[in-house]
Specification:
There is one protein chain. Helix content is about 40%, strand content about 15%. It has two domains: about 5-225, Spore Coat Polysaccharide Biosynthesis Protein SpsA, Chain A (Alpha-Beta Complex), CATH 3.90.550; about 235-314, no CATH class. Strands 1, 2, 3, 4, 5, 6, 7, 8, 9 and 10 form a ten-stranded mixed sheet that branches. By secondary structure, the chain is of the alpha/beta class. The chain contains twelve helices and ten strands. This is Glycosyltransferase family 2 protein.
């Protein structure tokens, strides 16, 4: 390829998993040039888990600061031309990096790559297979190329990302210069729900991206990771998109896309609160949704929520 690839990985209390994750990274058909780990103040026996790999990784340590700051620290200490992200409990197929190299050779103008993936709670279906009808066609710059292994995405691909979030951190590889150009990870989001979405959305608004329809990553879902809670993640995404819009962190042309998505996400959040019995929260979020953006059934749900939340307080 002629350019170097660094893996950047935040770590917090993943001694049970990280050995398997690193085995997958070091068993790539195309090897990476560097692996940088940032320990976010782990309290488990991380040192013992890392002992077999200590001469093959760069280990940084910080006080517990949240995943975004740990990821930021790892990225900004990495020396590679390209940064491959991997969470400390996810697994790459052996040809994950090889596929990236082939995708970049196919589309040398690209500065961001993401692969399809599977999740441990639904291993029989890929993420792209769960997408709404027509999503892949809308994502593709050349819809006639949908059957190809590597697909050049529309520029920007933010709209497709917001319609269906299929670009996860452990599947993401990008030029370090792209990361620098968008201002890197913002430390203040580090403990927000879905904090990684802040970086991904900003990249999607600027990057020339290529994707791979083959699933080469397994995302491990278990009770103590953030991605297991739909409502709290959606709350985080609303906060993140609101921040990106308020701070003007994307080009002007993307701000309307984000504004419309915030309305849609708030509507989804209202309905999620209602169906989960969180009637007070449903009433509160409805106050942040402009008149006309809820349908008739939603107003019936709002009335019901208001009555029940008032009754519970009395």
């Amino acid at each position: 390829m002629g350019e170097t690839i660094s893996v950047a990985m935040p770590v917090f209390n993943r001694a049970e998993w990280i050995g398997q994750t690193l085995d997958h990274i070091f068993n790539q058909t195309v090897p990476v040039d560097e692996v940088v780990l940032c320990d976010d103040g782990s309290t488990d026996d991380l040192d013992a888990a890392l002992a077999p790999f200590r001469d093959r990784v760069t280990l940084l340590r910080i006080e517990n600061s949240g995943p975004a700051i740990a990821r930021k620290t790892a990225i900004e200490h990495a020396t590679g031309d390209w940064i491959a992200l991997c969470d400390s409990d996810d697994f790459w197929e052996s040809h994950h990096i090889e596929n990236f190299v082939n995708a970049h050779r196919t589309y040398p103008e690209s500065d961001l790559y993401f692969s399809n993936f599977r999740q441990s709670d639904q291993p029989g279906i890929t993420k792209f297979q769960q997408a709404p009808a027509g999503w892949l066609k809308d994502l593709s710059k050349c819809p006639d190329h949908q059957g190809a292994a590597y697909i050049l995405c529309r520029h920007p691909f933010l709209q497709s990302l917001l319609e269906f979030q299929a670009c996860f951190q452990s599947c993401l590889i990008f030029r370090k210069s792209l990361y620098t150009d968008i201002g890197g990870i913002k430390p203040y989001v580090s403990r927000w729900r879905s904090e990684d979405f802040h970086l991904t959305a900003r990249m999607a608004a600027r990057a020339f991206a290529v994707t791979n329809t083959e699933a080469t990553v397994l995302i491990n879902k278990h009770p103590d990771n953030f991605s297991s809670e739909y409502i709290r993640n959606l709350e985080g995404e609303v906060n993140i998109l609101t921040d990106i819009m308020d701070q003007r962190l994307v080009p002007q042309s993307s701000l309307k896309i984000i504004a419309n998505t915030i309305i849609n996400y708030k509507r989804r959040l209202f309905r999620a609160y209602y169906w989960s019995g969180q009637y007070g929260e449903a009433v509160n979020i409805s106050r942040r949704i402009s008149f006309g953006h809820l349908n008739l059934r939603d107003y019936v749900r709002l009335t019901y929520s208001y009555v029940l939340s008032t009754w519970k307080r009395s």
